[in-house]
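From the pipeline queue, job 12 of 40. The input is one protein chain; the requested action is below.

Action: predict structure.
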Amino acid sequence: MFHFFEQKRFLVDYLHGFVDIHNHVLPGIDDGAKTVDESLELINGFSEFGMKAMICTPHIMHNYYDNTPKTIIASHKELMEKLDSREVDVSVDFAAEHMIDDNFEMILETGDVLPLKKEYLLIEMSYLQPSFSFDTAIEKIAQQGYFPILAHPERYAYYHDRHRTYAEFKSRGILFQLNLLSLGEFYGKRVKLMAEKLLERGLFEYVGTDIHNMRQLSALKEMRVDKKGLKLLLPVIENTILTFY
């Protein structure tokens, strides 16, 4: 096990040119930024450490955040109208983070999902229990020609004592996206420990910030990692840039 408090280095110093594929920066449509001004403040904060591009991924979550391509496109348009008038060197695109719930298969079949780069579908589960239809959903995602990316697998506490589940997911072609804040203690010590274990085992293909607000962005800017942690993390960061820029 590596320890992030040895030979500390600020993580953001290694994020110049980064492409963030998971964040909640679009205004007014989920539990992320509430207004365009909040969105702009977040984007400015990202630009300070050299973020190159971001793909905004608001929740599509039945009965909570009932977003559609129409609502997400409208929110993105509203943000871009303000952003285009500012000197911020960050490209802002959009996709979505799809909850595997009782509505997911329907929107998948009707084409109302929003993939990353037209190929990758960012998915999530509840933090309380696994999605009942998860296995079927993964099969149908593949049938539709998408690659599933499971957001922050380290945060699902019900898998923390079921390590074989992660290997089973990988054997089925499920890609993993790490939340950078998981490598500190922002979500707690158990999440940090699981993030480290999965990173050591080489199970992450991609990283994202999952930033919702300035408090989280400030926490990211204060995060430090050690030399060994960086050695494991930097190839995943590079792969994220190469795939999505």
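Job complete. The chain has one domain: 9-244.
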